[in-house]
């Protein structure tokens, strides 16, 4: 065990910090869940990619730096510390990208990864359906084979970024006779094809961050299949493992939020309110604990101990911590916490966004079931 | 940056687990309660032979010269077994501090406990030859049992004897931090074990024609308990590293570990008891041996609130 950075890790940190200091926009961008903000964020992603910072853990040939997980965590720390914009293509870069690298063909890697790293193509996730949310295996959207094409029909919902994204990655039922998680296929589909209708849904904050996607006889070539026909569940679970486990929510954003909470407490907290002081410290400890836990996890991955069902523990932990950090901030703010605009807007917005965490990427109740079944080895059932 | 244990460290911990599985089953822990000793001389001898008791004693004083990172998984294993007697106090603080003048502590033929906090009671005084106090090494004392909740951690008031100065005057704060760290790791082991016991019970016990572990209310209770235990581990291992390396954050890190581990073990005790239903409220169930240890240790050497406020003093002000 050695928790000090190596010289090369420190040099990498310094390089990232210097680049970000010189390149992060001085004014905050508009929300990427607005049309203007989406375009601004795509430009930012292109700039990041120009410095080869958009996908640091990817191989160099696809636009990355071949950085190991520790370097990736260091980059994330510097990224959030710098106040850089949110990642509009995170569903692509952090979820789909690693999945393509794991199960994609060489041709698919060449075709999809470089344009993903540069955000020339921004990706939306199209998994949930009106009747397949927590019960994801209940997917009904179909892909029917017609020569060298799939014909897609059905409806997806809660597709983040889909309003302005270019492509989506979805799961479709390809074997109508198969039940549940068998007979599903992972298919990549442009969102501007004939037959695709995207209907924006206003989120809790009023922005259209997600959408419904309707597929009416949409024709895509079979080479857009990722990971094999009828293998979609397996591929999706690989993606979900990354998503819940490590990549989607690196500790840096919570460390940064906890540090902002400390500043807020110092500026506006009432030192005689010991209960609230305890809560602030507890939030800091949660964020610090998550950071340490993640370094331990990635060291294990580097030493050949892959993350399994414990990924579900991470997902519960970070999502509940994020809510807690924001609840405490609003408590410190008192009457100001009622305002949607003004100097504390970010805390109120952040609170609303944090409330999605326990729901998306598999509700926390589903994660608790997974932990109980796979880690604690409790019997299946409801 | 490498946040993992070496193969040697893991293998030593596995070896200790094997020893404790054989030599420290719940029946032994219960025996130490029922015979009133709160300590097992036979187990103690075995731990001495394995080198566990003198692990942190310097090589110059005849010990293994290991550090807190080497020891932390062992503390955790001792907790999994709810090992009775002054094992934490002796290993973490007592033996390293007194070994130069009392070499018998290395193999455990002399037993040393510690009293470096504000408690009016001294844990394990009845079975200890020596007490490390804030002023030195106390010996020749008499003790009066105060009837602690944990029969394998007898607490007592102490009278008489004399106190000799410590040869090696390590800062008191470091000793306290080591005690907090050792207790945190032990609490994590207790938490893990209680959850395993409850999971096993939930697999066997049937109601409504099904194992109760198949019900979501039970699954979620246990998953949440596991979450707290799992997320107390990395902070505890980090605290071990900070102490072993004399980091400036060592006190903060030890307090963070003790706060999180105390709460995690307490939560594990409550959830595990609830899963057991009525059996959980009986003297016969072995769960009580682990729960009561957790309740005692979650308060010993600073409870969660005390340690959280110590963290506050480091992070809120600056």
Examine the coordinates and then state which fold CATH places here, giving the name of the CATH topology of the largest domain in chain A: Butyryl-CoA Dehydrogenase, subunit A, domain 3
Proportion of residues in extended strands of chain A = 5-15%
Strand percentage of chain B? 5-15%
Helix content of chain A: 40-55%
Number of domains of chain A: 3
Count of β-strands of chain B: 9
Measured distance between first and last alpha carbons of chain B: 26 Å
- Quaternary organization: heterodimer
Overview of this protein structure:
Chain A is an alpha+beta fold and 382 residues long. Chain A folds into three domains: 7-117, Acyl-CoA dehydrogenase/oxidase, N-terminal domain (Butyryl-Coa Dehydrogenase, subunit A, domain 1); 123-230, Beta Barrel (Butyryl-CoA Dehydrogenase, subunit A, domain 2), CATH 2.40.110; 249-375, Up-down Bundle (Butyryl-CoA Dehydrogenase, subunit A, domain 3). Helix content of chain A is 47%, strand content 14%. Chain A contains eleven helices and eight strands. In chain A, the strands form two sheets. A four-stranded mixed β-sheet of chain A has the order 1-4-5-8. In chain A, helix 1 runs parallel beside helix 3 (69-81), helix 7 runs parallel beside helix 9 and helix 9 runs antiparallel to helix 10. The mean pLDDT of chain A is 94. Chain B is an alpha+beta fold and 318 residues long. Chain B folds into two domains: 7-164, Butyryl-Coa Dehydrogenase, subunit A, domain 1 (Orthogonal Bundle), CATH 1.10.540; 172-315, Butyryl-CoA Dehydrogenase, subunit A, domain 3 (Up-down Bundle), CATH 1.20.140. Chain B is built from ten helices and nine strands. The radius of gyration of chain B is 19 Å and the shape is globular. Classes of the chains: A alpha+beta (382), B alpha+beta (318).
């Amino acid at each position: 065990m050695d928790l000090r950075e190596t010289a090369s890790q420190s040099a990498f940190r310094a390089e990232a910090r210097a680049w970000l200091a010189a390149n992060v926009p001085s004014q905050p961008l508009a929300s990427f869940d607005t049309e203007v903000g989406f375009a601004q964020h795509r430009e930012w992603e292109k700039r990041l990619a120009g410095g080869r910072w958009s996908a640091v853990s990817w191989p160099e040939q696809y636009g990355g730096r071949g950085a190991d997980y520790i370097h990736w965590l260091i980059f994330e720390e510097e990224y959030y510390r710098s106040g850089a914009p949110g990642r509009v293509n995170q569903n692509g870069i952090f979820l789909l990208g690693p999945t393509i690298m794991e199960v994609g063909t060489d041709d698919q890697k060449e075709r999809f990864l470089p344009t993903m790293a540069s955000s020339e193509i921004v990706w939306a996730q199209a998994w949930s359906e009106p009747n397949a949310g927590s019960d994801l295996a209940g997917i009904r959207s179909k892909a029917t084979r017609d020569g060298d094409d799939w014909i897609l029909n059905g409806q997806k919902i809660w597709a983040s970024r889909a309003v302005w994204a270019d492509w989506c990655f979805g799961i479709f039922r390809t074997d109508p006779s198969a039940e549940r998680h068998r007979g599903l296929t992972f298919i990549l589909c442009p969102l501007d094809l004939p037959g695709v209708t995207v209907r924006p849904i206003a989120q809790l904050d009023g922005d259209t961050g997600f959408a419904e996607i309707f597929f009416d006889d949409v024709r895509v070539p079979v080479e857009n299949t990722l990971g094999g026909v009828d293998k979609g569940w397996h591929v999706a679970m690989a993606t979900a493992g990354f998503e819940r486990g490590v990549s989607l929510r690196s500790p840096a954003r919570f460390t940064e939020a906890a540090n902002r909470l400390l500043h807020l407490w110092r500026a506006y907290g009432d030192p005689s309110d010991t209960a609230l002081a305890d809560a602030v410290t507890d939030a800091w400890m949660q964020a610090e604990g998550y950071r340490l836990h993640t370094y331990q996890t990635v060291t294990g991955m580097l030493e050949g101990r892959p993350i399994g069902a414990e990924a579900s523990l991470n997902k519960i932990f970070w999502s509940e911590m994020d809510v807690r950090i924001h609840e405490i901030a609003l408590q410190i703010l008192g009457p100001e916490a009622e305002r949607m605009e003004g100097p504390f807007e970010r805390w109120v917005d952040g609170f609303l966004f944090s409330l999605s965490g326990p729901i998306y990427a598999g509700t926390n109740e589903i994660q608790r079931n997974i932990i109980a079944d796979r880690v604690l080895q409790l019997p299946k059932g409801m | 940056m490498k946040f993992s244990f070496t193969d040697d460290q893991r293998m030593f911990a596995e070896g200790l687990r094997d020893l404790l599985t054989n030599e420290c089953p719940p029946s032994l822990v219960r025996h130490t309660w029922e015979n009133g000793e709160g300590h097992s001389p036979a187990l103690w001898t075995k731990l001495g032979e394995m080198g566990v008791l003198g692990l942190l004693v310097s090589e110059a004083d005849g010990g293994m010269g290991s550090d807190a990172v080497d020891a932390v998984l062992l503390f955790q294993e001792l907790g999994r077994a709810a090992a009775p007697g002054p094992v934490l106090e002796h290993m973490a603080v007592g033996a390293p501090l007194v070994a130069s003048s009392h070499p018998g502590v290395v193999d455990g033929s002399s037993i040393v406990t510690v009293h470096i906090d504000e408690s009016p009671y001294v844990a394990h005084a009845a079975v200890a030859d020596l007490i490390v106090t804030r002023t030195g090494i106390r010996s020749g004392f008499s003790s009066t049992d105060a009837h602690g909740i944990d029969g394998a951690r007898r607490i007592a008031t102490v009278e008489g004897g004399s106190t000799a100065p410590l040869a090696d005057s390590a800062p008191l704060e470091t000793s306290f931090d080591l005690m907090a760290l050792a207790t945190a790791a032990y609490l994590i082991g207790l938490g893990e074990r209680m959850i395993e016991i409850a999971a096993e019970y939930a697999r066997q016990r049937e109601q409504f024609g099904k194992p109760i572990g198949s019900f979501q209310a039970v699954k979620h209770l246990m998953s949440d308990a596991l979450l707290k235990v799992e997320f107390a581990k990395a902070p505890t291992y980090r605290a071990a590293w900070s102490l072993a390396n004399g980091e400036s954050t060592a006190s903060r890190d030890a307090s963070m570990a003790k706060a999180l581990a105390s709460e995690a073990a307490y939560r594990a005790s409550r959830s595990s008891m609830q899963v057991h239903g009525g059996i959980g409220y009986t003297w016969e169930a072995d769960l009580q041996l682990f729960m009561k240890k957790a309740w005692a240790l979650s308060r010993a050497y600073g409870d969660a609130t005390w340690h959280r406020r110590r963290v506050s003093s480091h992070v809120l002000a600056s």
